[in-house]
Amino acid sequence: MASKKNKFTRREFFGTGLKIGAGIAAYPFIKSVLARSRSATSLFAATEEEAEVKELRLWASGTQTIEEHWEKLESDLGIKILFSDNGNAVGPVISKMVFGDAAKIYDINGLQGGAEKELADQGAIIPWDMSLIPNWDDDIWPMVRNIPYHTVTGKRYGIPFTINADSMVYNADKVSVCDTYAYVFDRSLKGKTSMEDYWANACIFAAMYLKENNIQGMGTIEDPGNLKVDELEGVMEFLIREKKEGQFRTFWSGWEQGVSLITSGEVWCMTGWEPIVYAAQEKGVNAKYAVPKEGYEGWSNDLILHEGVKKKGLYETAHAFVNWVYSGYFGNQIMKMRGYCSPTEKVIKYAEAHPNEFDPEWIKGKQKHVLDKFKKKKGETYWQNVRPNNFKLYEDWWEKLRRA
Amino acid sequence: MKLRTREKKGGVLVPGEIFLPALYVMILGIIPLLLIIVWSFFEPTEYWIRPRLTIAAYTKFFTLGRYITFLKTLRVSVTVTVIALLLGYPIAFFIRKIIKEKYRTLILFIFIIPFFLSYIIRIFSLRLILGRNGLINNLLVLTGLVSEPLEGLLFNEFAVHIGLLSSYLPFMIFPIVLSIERVGNSTIEASQDLGATFFQTLFKVIIPLTKPGIFAGCIFVFVSSLGSTVEWDLLGGVSELSTQQMLESLITALKFPSTFAISTLILIITMGALLLGFRYARIGDLFETLE
């Protein structure tokens, strides 16, 4: 009896298969019925409460959100931000936008600058209508108006979400005055220097050093952020040589690693982010941020407009959101929460008009500090480009460097 | 309550019982693996792949020197596995046969405790021990054994080995402890009564009987080391790049066929090791201990 019970007959086999098949076939129908019932409920609720609240799906680097403070946008303009972290890895983001549905699912992207041309060529993003963003006015810092990769064939595709300029972090007790990138490659600091483990950062810093000091005849480099094939070869061969000589203690990635290398004394001088200096100082290390004669590496995290917004009827809403970003509140909040800078004078104006919300002096000091990096710099500001023309070659070279 | 038997006479599962598990394994396990193998022979497009057969991804594996990273990871994984076995076997034997039963759980627990910590923090803390101003260097300088801190403890292959061992040594110990359960004290005593030396008993009685545990431990450590990233990333320094890191970099650069090709090679090696285990070490016997 037991054996009969356990026996799996052909009829039962097909019966089970059919049940599973029917379940799979019915799933989309059930799903659509459920979705319809949900949307009917939400429509009903919206009519009762506030039909005008529009939702914008913002897909950006996790560090660009002001979290619960997006409520201010909802109360100001009736726009609700649904934030998702895009992981900040440019390749996969582009792949999901061009090959996947991300350009339709999400409405606005916040991505490290440089991917605009590629995404525009692929039709994944559309240009901004600057006439719908009146806050893009004379208060905007001049240097961010002409970031090379923000425009494609004269149309603006990228608007800076936040910006800053990076150089070197150094331990002032070990290295007296660090005013040139030459320190990173100085043999007296052999095994005590480091660079970020990402070609978009390491290559531009090395290229700036080689260009500005005309080393190996590299003074002819046009744009350190977008190297030509032969320029890239020269820069990478230089870095490979330095690595083989044992110049670098390690390559670093991520905030914790950056801070740890300086505070533990493993590294005395490295290319890196300014907040690392403040974190190291808090831990009692005499860390300082360099003002190199070759200049800074400027970077911007850009707002780009997905092609799907027009069909969804969110084109104006998206522009209204960006206009709000440039109205001052966002700049104060992101500076307070993350130390990032929104490049408009409206940030200080807002703080002065709302001293109960933000400390105007503190904000002024922080904004001025970033602005001075661009204004009172010794050298040029070269903009980081995460998607240079030869980016696949950059990847190949970086792989080669890591293996060397 | 007596569990209802799920076996027919002779211990063979009937098709009806395995239909759903088999379907599950097919959909979530075997089909994705087969797709990886097939896609590795597809041509790359700007953002994905297209079904035009080519062996370009495998050619690039050699011409662009990716095999160097692959072989290095393989070599390190084998070394770590061998060291883990040499360390893990005596520890397992000590836990199971030497110490008293009431302390056994405590000792095993000591090996489990680190797993309560975040994986990254656990590896990161090794920097504080191996670093220029770390615990070991401070001790060496304090005791006068060296005048200057040693640079070679961190950011090299040695540090990667330490990191991998600290992560995966318990994976070697636990299956061996389990397999030593199969070796009764009477068996060891019988061997000695018949005049076998310690080493004869060890090599001719104990090790053959614990082969399934040894092999299971080796597989766990080897496969985990092969797929490791954090140890290489945090402890390896500029010259240490693992296959896994290379794969991540290839995915970022959207070089999918190359990613699939390397994954296929990893799959072949892992499956080969498993087949050897089932064939020669009778790895399946390990679970009989549980019955």
N-end to C-end Cα span of chain B: 17 Å
Order of helices and strands of chain A: HHEHEHHEHEEEEEHHEHEHEEHHHHEH
Structural class of the helix and strand makeup of chain A?
alpha/beta
Q: State the total count of DSSP E strands of chain B.
A: 2
> Which whole number gives the mean pLDDT of chain B?
88
| Largest interface pair | A-B, 40 and 43 residues
What does the average pLDDT of chain A come to? 87
Describe the largest sheet of chain B. Answer: 2 strands, antiparallel
Estimate the global geometry of chain B from the Cα principal axes. Answer: flat
Looking at the structure, what is the overall shape of chain A? globular
CATH class of chain B: Mainly Alpha
Any overview of this molecule?
The complex is a heterodimer of chains A (404) and B (291). Chain A is α/β, with parallel strands linked by helices. Chain A has two domains: 54-157 and 301-366, D-Maltodextrin-Binding Protein, domain 2, CATH 3.40.190.10; 164-294 and 379-403, D-Maltodextrin-Binding Protein, domain 2, CATH 3.40.190.10. In chain A, 44% of the residues lie in helices and 17% in strands. Chain A contains 15 helices and 13 strands. Chain A has helices spanning 2-6, 10-48, 71-77, 90-98, 102-105, 116-121, 199-212, 229-244, 255-263, 274-282, 315-325, 329-338, 346-353, 360-375, 391-403, and strands spanning 54-60, 79-85, 108-112, 125-126, 151-152, 155-156, 159-171, 193-196, 248-252, 269-272, 287-289, 295-306, 380-383. In chain A, the strands form two sheets. In chain A, strands 1, 2, 3, 4, 7, 8, 9, 10, 11, 12 and 13 form an eleven-stranded mixed β-sheet that branches. In chain A, strands 5-6 form a two-stranded antiparallel ribbon. The radius of gyration of chain A is 26 Å and the shape is globular. The model of chain A is unreliable at 1-8 and 31-50 (pLDDT under 50). With 291 residues, chain B is mainly alpha-helical. Chain B has one domain (66-290): MetI-like fold (Orthogonal Bundle). Chain B has a two-stranded antiparallel sheet with strand order 1-2. Chain B starts with 14 loop residues before the first helix and ends in an 11-residue tail after the last helix. The relative contact order of chain B is 0.13. Classes of the chains: A alpha/beta (404), B mainly alpha (291).
